[in-house]
Structures are given as C-alpha cells and as structure tokens.
Amino acid sequence: xxxxxxxxxxxxxxxxxxxxxxxxxxxxxxxxxxxxxxxxxxxxxxxxxxxxxxxxxxxxxxxxxxxxxxxxxxxxxxxxxxxxxxxxxxxxxxxxxxxxxxxxxxxxxxxxxxxxxxxxxxxxxxxxxxxxxxxxxxxxxxxxxxxxxxxxxxxxxxxxxxxxxxxxxxxxxxxxxxxxxxxxxxxxxxxxxxxxxxxxxxxxxxxxxxxxxxxxxxxxxxxxxxxxxxxxxxxxxxxxxxxxxxxxxxxxxxxxxxxxxxxxxxxxxxxxxxxxxxxxxxxxxxxxxxxxxxxxxxxxxxxxxxxxx
Length: 309
Ligand SMILES: C[S@@+](CC[C@H](N)C(=O)[O-])C[C@H]1O[C@@H](n2cnc3c(N)ncnc32)[C@H](O)[C@@H]1O
Known about the structure:
By secondary structure, this protein is of the alpha/beta class. The protein is built from 13 helices and 7 strands. It has 2 domains: 2-141, no CATH class; 153-305, Rossmann fold, CATH 3.40.50. Helices cover 48% and strands 15% of the residues. It is elongated. The structure holds S-adenosylmethionine. S-adenosylmethionine (SAM) binds at residues 81, 148-151, 156, 175-178, 197-199, 210-211, 227-229, 233.
C-alpha cells in the first residue's frame, strides 16, 4: 500500500494546520482535493487501484484513517469522549470513501474529488455531535483547543503531595497518560502502582480503559491518584454539560468506594463544588494550594475514606 499511503501522507501534510474550528465550520479547502494531489492521483491511478483492489486492504486503510482522525480529535480537544457508536460512525465515513476506489469506472481523482465533500460533511456532523455532547461546540467555534499533555513524575508527586503511606500500594493512577510516567517512576520506588488511560497501551501495569469503568482490587486501592485528568475533565463537564457532570459525580463517588478504609483519592485540581458535600463521617477532605500566587491559585485535594462500609 506504499503509494496509497504516501499520497495520504501528502494530503495530511497539506492539511497539517487544520483546526477543529475548520472542521466544524466546513472549511471549503477540506472538501476539495488540491490540484497537485489530483495530479499525483492520476499519475499513480493504476498502482493505487492495484494496492487497494482487495476489500481487506481498503478496510485496513479506512481503519487507519479513522483511528488517526480520532487521535487528532482527542489531541486537539481533550474533553471529547467518543462513544462506541461515534467511533463506528467515523469508521463508516472512511469506509464509504475508500469503497469508491473499486467502483470508480474511470478517473479515480475525479471520483474522489466527488466523494471527499460528502465525506467531510459526514465527519463534520459526527464531530459536532461529539463536541456538543460535552458542551464544547461554542469553545471550539471560539478557537479553543485544550490539548492534552503529560507531566514529569517529579512534578506530579509535588503537586499531589504523595506520602510514603500512599506508596504502600496498591496505587491506581487514573488518566495516567499514554506512557504512564508516574506509574513507572513509583514502581521504580517499590510501589505496586498501576495505571489506566484511554490512550495507554495494555501492559503488565497499565490498562487501556475508561475511568467510568475502573478496575477493582481485592481489599480496595490504598491510593488512587489523578493528576490533571479525572478532576480536570469533571470541572469541564460541570461548567459545560449537565448530563456529563452527573456522570462524573457518580464516577467520583464510585472512585471513593473503591478505596480501602484509610485509603485516599489524591487529585488535582480540586473540586470545590463537590468536596463540601461529602459526608464528614465517611470522608476527610484536605485541600492544599498548589501555587499560592493570586493569579495562578489552584489546589490539589486528598479525600481519605474513614469508614469500612
Ligand atoms: C492532561 S493528561 C494528564 C496525564 C497524566 N496524568 C500526567 O499528568 O502526565 C489527561 C489524560 O487523561 C486521559 N483521559 C481522558 N479521558 C479519559 C477517560 N474517559 N478515561 C481514561 N483516561 C482518560 C487522557 O488520555 C490523558 O492521557
């Protein structure tokens, strides 16, 4: 599939500066194939048809493009949460486009020129649906792109204020990041640490998964940590989307229920709209400023489970 992939890379390079706002507002350039790309398609038409003659090859290409698009979306707007049906819809959109290839009687470039507009219309509507669900549409139209980053273990430990007692384990890092830096660091210090993230590959100590469906451990987790992950997304939902915020509130309580008695959920930023509502007979809440400077005031929080209910 070398030639097809190189032309795909060419198209991606051409559209490297595409913003989410461009996609949502249906930027005309995205709905067209450029002249240089069209010329390349015509020149290599026979090879492309041969490379993509089998349904398997076309499906592989469509699946690769769909997962690339979803990765782009999560990278550009980290609060988006594509459902299984969103992911299927994105894949279907790419499949519909690649299936034009064997059907195009003549002039592959012309046939693709024709479907790429429809393809982007579909992708646009799916993207709008995903952004709308988390209340992000206005932000995106205003040009906001809250990107996702990973932070050093040293910084995470400092912000969270982890103690030796936390390191007794087992410890779960939720939203640990693709490379689970903190998990690796803590394991290097003898802690039975594990991580879960929707982007992390499955490994001995990491799970690819969703924090709405967290793993249990016999006897409960000693410590659950979440640095700029669960609580950051909860705040976004609280400010933007009521239904989503309700889901986060339920998930927050189920995290606390997964702690062993005496265990803690340690996270940053803190959640001032829910922490005061916790039953003080069951949970101790300690909020600490991370940076005391007035313009960058934000806090971490440690919620310790007191009971064994
Ligand atoms: C800003 S990053 C922080 C990563 C890490 N905690 C750090 O501080 O370096 C937020 C992480 O949350 C993950 N994430 C977002 N939504 C998630 C979900 N629903 N379930 C699991 N992980 C999620 C993202 O994939 C991303 O790795």
